[in-house]
Design brief:
Blueprint: H1 5-9, E1 30-37, E2 41-49, E3 52-58, E4 69-78, E5 87-89, E6 97-113, E7 116-123, E8 127-136, E9 139-144
Antiparallel strand pairs: 1-2, 1-6, 2-3, 3-4, 4-9, 5-6, 6-7, 7-8, 8-9
The protein binds manganese (II) ion.
Residues 36, 38, 42, 44, 57, 95 line the site of manganese (II) ion.
Length: 150
């Protein structure tokens, strides 16, 4: 299927321990934040949507508090099986380095448009209302919403 071709094209599954994976049915609602110590440390924010993991690389990490906007660069969809992946990607392979789970949990979509995704995260470290706002190209902004309490 089309959605994971970029993911597969970048990897040699004889050499990397990452899952090959395939699209699965819709209805998932899990998220993960991977801490990926590659050439440059970054965090990968992944949402289970449409049978794959929509993924963004967040160089400075997902903010814990409102008022902090972080660049989130959209990367190729990953297979849902990647949600549990941790391990070592060998030297010479795409994304070589160490992948750990920084946080995970469930989410609820509040609003989903082409350039705007609003969701409620229910993780161990991350909780509350978050927004992904497309700016240009592969670039999005990721931030925690201030919730009005009246
Ligand atoms: Mn990464």
């Amino acid at each position: 299927m089309m959605a994971l071709e970029k993911y597969r094209d970048k990897r040699d599954f004889d050499r990397t321990p990452e899952p090959g994976g395939q699209l699965v049915g819709e209805g998932g609602s899990r998220f993960v934040v991977h801490r990926h110590q590659a050439r440059h440390l970054h965090y990968d924010f992944r949402l289970e949507i449409d049978g794959a993991l929509k993924s963004w690389a967040v160089p400075k990490g997902v903010p814990l508090e409102p008022g902090v906007k972080r660049l989130a660069v959209q990367v190729e969809d990953h297979p849902v099986a990647y949600i549990d992946f941790t391990g070592q990607i060998p030297e010479g392979q795409y994304g070589a380095g160490t992948v750990e789970i920084w946080d995970n949990g469930k989410f609820e979509l509040v609003k989903r448009e082409a350039d705007y995704i609003e969701l409620t995260l229910k993780g161990s470290k991350l909780s509350g209302e978050y927004v992904l706002l497309h700016t240009d190209g592969k670039n999005w902004l990721l931030f925690k919403r201030k919730v009005d309490r009246r």
